[in-house]
Amino acid sequence: MSQNANALIESYYAAFNAGDMDKFLSLLTDDVIHDTNQGSREIGKGPFKAFMDRMNRNYKEELVHMVVMSNDDDSRAAAEFVVLGEYLATDEGLPEAKGQKYRLPAGAFFDIRDGKVARITNYYNLEDWIKQVSQG
Fold first, then answer.
1. How far apart are alpha carbons 64 and 54 in whole angstroms?
2. Residue 135 pLDDT > 90, yes or no?
3. Which residue, of 57, 76, 93, 108, is most buried by count of CB atoms within 10 Å of its CB?
């Protein structure tokens, strides 16, 4: 198992958990591909930063119970984790935010190029999240 890809993904999520968006974004290629959960594909650091700005405005999240896996040539990686979150501000098309807490299993898949994240695809159960915040 490769430590380079694993170390990159662990650094990526450590920066996320620390709220260090400069470090977080520095780990991406300029042409990063972001496949959003049940959504569209975005290309480039600019759209990814705009996505993260919206996420950080509407949600406060910490990722725990992280397991990172990678292939032998460090070109692909995956992570499984649990999202501990708080819904801070209503996101367009979603239930009203009232500070609801949620706990959500999630995963992500990565392409890695030149020691940086070139593609990230996130997966979680949106129906489960909606159920949690609707009851919250």
1. 21
2. no
3. 108
